[in-house]
Structure formats: structure tokens, C-alpha cells
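C-alpha cells as discussed.
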């Protein structure tokens, strides 16, 4: 008897399993519900005008031969890509299903007081009305109720998000032009950063040269002082000035009170850039920014009456200091201008003489010994590659109590000279004074130690190879 009950239980389980399989197969073979395409009034034609109303105030947009014009933004740059996407979304609008009795109970779908509505005019002169209702509950994907010419449908939320746009959504968010003009990179000729408080910092283009097949542009600081600019600015600063895009539009045609509230009546900082385009024409642009708040910065572009919001991370130029712009190379005289080089560090002394540098009969000597020209050049380029951690133009430290670590004297063919005096300011830090203190530098003591070691090897006749 017990065995019979067990067999009966197993049989029941098998029947349940077979039923589940049959049900799954039946569901899988059920055809998917196809999307229905709205029978638009004016089907086959294209949209001419949209008059939208919503919580943002809405917008009116009109197309003339695919060119979009947004009412109220005639004097401002429109993002043609956004306008094109809105037009395409309208003309290809599809629905999930039709609510057969929906027209009689609009309030059930949030359509009696629609959150957004649009009057659409087509090229053939016909008109359509579109209302945006609430979200469709209990759906895996985000759906919205809509009313199209009085009939109620459901559609994917992404199909009608443009109904909730405001004027600002059609504005171009491009703040600055692209760094490339066609296949060429533009040539930056002048950059100024003007703070509300403090001195203006200005860089100016000086010249270009070809090195190993690449064009290298040189710049100098002309304000607040004249000084060579750091070579890295072409890679670290300039690219971040071009192709800037705002994150959002804060205000269109702002009142003066809005500008004042954003800190733009008296800007926190102003960026001014001049450049030469591919045709050789001089172009320019400028940005005014307010003070950052919670990582966001209010921005206005020259000639565009809009306040934008932009992430502070995109505006790296705002944090640039004079130390970031000036060259940190301590001293780099052209080797062809030298007559001699003298180095003294404690009991170590090295005196090198050179003649006819760059010519076929050039010579380099240490005392009476003639040195290999390539070895001397490798040593000399390591010397003039000294890079300071800080360049000082004022507030120099008092060196009277500092120990002198080394003195390097450059004597030129015209009889003039430059002297670098290195002082031990801290255990691993040197303060370097140029000549009579016209400027100073702070740099790592290891740079001097490596140079002295190389000078000793050069004086001993060892081959010196360049280290990059």
C-alpha cells in the first residue's frame, strides 16, 4: 500500500512538470504585441511648427528648409542637433497601445490637466494636438499616457520627453570654439586671465620652430612681468581653453539682478583668447565666470546673453597661477655664446673653456686636456635642464645665514657673465640666486649633486651620454 502511494505521488509531480513545460511553450509561441504607429494628421508631410506649453514655460519652434528658429532666441546660438532630434521624434512617434475608452476619462491618465501640451502644424497646413499625461503604472519600461487629437495612447517616455523642454534646452551649450579648424590646429597668439582681485596674467606667442618633424610654439609672459613661459602650457593649458561645453542653461536674457546674484556683474575671473585660424585670420573669444559654488560655476560667453552653469573641473584655467605659467628652467644659455664655464662646490672646482662652438674646428678643454665634444654637450644640457620647484620674483629669503653649496659662472664671448649661487636652505632643498638677486629659485639638492658627479666624470675623461 505504501509503495502505491509513493508511485501516485511521483505521477502527480510528473503531471505538474509537464503542465509547466506546456504553459511555457505556449507563452513563448504567443506572438509579441506589435507597436502601433499613430495615424498622424499630415502623415507623410513634415512638421513646420511646434507650440509647446509646460512647467518650464514651453517654446515655439519653426522650421524653414530644415533650419530651426526658436521664438525668443533669435539673437542666440541654437543647437541645431537638438532641434533636429525633436523634429525626428515627432515625425516618427509610435505608441505601445491605444486606450479604447480613454477619451471619456482623461482625468484617469493625468490628461485633463496635462503637464505639457503642444500644437503642431504640418507642411500641408493641417494641425495636431498632443497632450502629455502621467506615467503608466506597473510597467517594466517607462511609459507615459498621451492624447493625440483626442485619442489616448501609451508610449515610451523617451518618445515624448521633448514636450517638457524649455527654451534653454534648444540653446547651444558651446562656450568656446574647437581647437582644430579643418585639419589644422589653430595657433594661439595671446591668452589673458584677468582676476577680480590681483594682477592680470598674459601670455603672448613669440615664435615657432620645427623639431623632429613637429612644430613647437614658444610663448612668453608679458604681464605682470616679462618672462619666458613654461613649454608645457601648449599641452596643459591651451587644449582646455577650446571646445568647452556648459552643463546647463541657468538663465536666458538675464536681468542685471540675476547677473549680480551669479557674480557676473563684476566677474570673479575673465578669460580672453586670441588665435589665428587655418585661413590666417585673427579670431578671439572671452569668458566671464562667477565664483565656484558646490563645484559649479556660472559662466557667460562674450556676445551671448545667457548665464550657463559649468562644472569647475572643465574650467582648469580658473586655478592657474603665475607659477604654473612661467618657465621653471633656472638658466639655459645657448652653448654657442659661451667662452668658459666655471663650477665651484666646496673643495671641488672645474673650469671648462670652449672655442668656435658649432663650427668644424670647435674645441672644449678642461685645463690642458681636450674633451670629447659630444660628452661636453651631454653634460652641459644636463646642467641647463635644472628645473626649479618655485621661481621667486620677490620676497627673497635672507641668505646671510645659509651655507653656500655651489657657485656656477657662465662667461660669454662678449665678456658678460651670469652667476648662479646655490645655498643650502633646507636639508634637501636649495635656494638658487641669479647674479645680484634679480630672481631666485627653489630646487631639489639632488639636481646639483647629480650635476657635480657628472662634472667630475667629465673632467676625468669619461664618456658622458645624454640621459632623457
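Sequence:
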Amino acid at each position: 500500500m505504501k509503495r502505491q502511494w509513493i508511485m501516485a505521488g511521483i505521477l502527480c509531480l510528473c503531471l505538474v512538470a509537464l503542465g509547466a513545460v506546456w504553459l511555457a511553450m505556449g507563452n513563448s509561441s504567443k506572438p509579441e504585441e506589435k507597436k502601433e504607429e499613430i495615424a498622424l494628421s499630415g502623415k507623410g508631410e513634415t512638421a513646420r511648427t511646434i507650440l509647446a506649453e509646460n512647467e518650464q514655460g514651453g517654446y515655439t519652434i519653426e522650421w524653414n528648409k530644415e533650419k530651426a528658429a526658436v521664438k525668443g532666441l533669435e539673437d542666440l546660438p541654437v543647437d541645431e542637433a537638438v532641434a533636429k532630434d525633436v523634429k525626428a521624434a515627432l515625425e516618427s512617434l509610435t505608441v505601445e497601445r491605444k486606450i479604447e475608452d480613454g477619451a471619456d476619462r482623461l482625468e484617469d491618465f493625468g490628461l485633463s490637466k496635462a503637464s505639457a501640451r503642444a500644437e503642431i502644424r504640418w507642411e500641408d497646413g493641417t494641425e495636431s494636438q498632443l497632450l502629455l499625461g502621467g506615467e503608466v503604472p506597473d510597467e517594466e519600461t517607462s511609459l507615459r499616457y498621451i492624447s493625440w487629437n483626442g485619442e489616448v495612447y501609451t508610449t515610451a517616455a523617451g518618445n515624448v520627453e521633448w514636450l517638457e523642454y524649455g527654451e534653454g534646452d534648444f540653446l547651444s551649450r558651446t562656450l568656446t570654439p574647437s581647437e582644430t579648424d579643418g585639419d589644422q590646429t589653430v595657433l594661439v597668439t595671446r591668452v589673458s586671465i584677468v582676476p577680480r582681485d590681483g594682477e592680470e596674467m598674459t601670455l603672448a606667442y613669440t615664435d615657432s620652430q620645427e623639431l623632429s618633424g613637429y612644430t613647437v610654439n614658444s610663448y612668453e609672459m608679458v604681464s605682470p612681468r616679462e618672462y619666458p613661459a613654461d613649454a608645457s602650457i601648449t599641452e596643459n593649458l591651451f587644449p582646455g581653453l577650446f571646445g568647452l561645453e556648459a552643463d546647463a542653461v541657468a538663465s536666458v536674457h538675464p536681468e542685471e539682478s540675476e547677473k549680480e546674484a551669479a557674480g557676473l556683474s563684476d566677474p570673479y575671473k575673465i578669460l580672453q583668447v586670441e588665435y589665428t585660424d587655418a585661413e590666417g585670420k585673427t579670431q578671439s573669444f572671452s569668458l566671464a565666470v562667477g565664483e565656484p559654488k558646490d563645484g559649479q560655476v556660472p559662466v557667460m560667453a562674450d556676445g551671448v546673453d545667457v548665464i550657463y552653469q559649468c562644472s569647475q573641473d572643465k574650467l582648469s584655467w580658473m586655478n592657474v597661477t603665475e607659477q604654473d605659467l612661467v618657465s621653471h628652467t633656472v638658466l639655459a644659455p645657448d652653448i654657442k655664446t659661451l667662452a668658459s664655464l666655471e663650477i665651484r662646490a666646496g673643495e671641488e672646482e672645474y673650469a671648462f673653456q670652449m672655442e668656435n662652438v658649432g663650427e668644424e674646428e670647435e674645441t672644449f678643454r678642461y685645463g690642458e686636456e681636450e674633451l670629447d665634444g659630444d660628452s661636453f654637450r651631454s653634460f652641459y644640457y644636463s646642467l641647463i635642464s635644472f628645473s626649479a620647484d618655485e621661481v621667486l620674483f620677490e620676497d627673497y629669503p635672507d641668505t646671510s645665514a645659509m651655507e653656500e653649496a655651489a657657485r656656477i659662472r657662465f662667461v660669454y664671448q662678449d665678456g658678460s657673465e651670469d652667476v648662479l649661487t646655490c645655498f643650502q636652505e633646507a636639508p634637501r632643498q636649495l635656494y638658487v640666486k641669479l647674479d645680484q638677486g634679480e630672481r631666485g629659485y627653489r630646487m631639489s639638492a639632488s639636481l646639483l649633486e647629480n650635476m657635480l658627479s657628472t662634472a667630475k666624470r667629465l673632467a676625468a675623461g669619461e664618456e658622458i651620454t645624454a640621459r632623457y
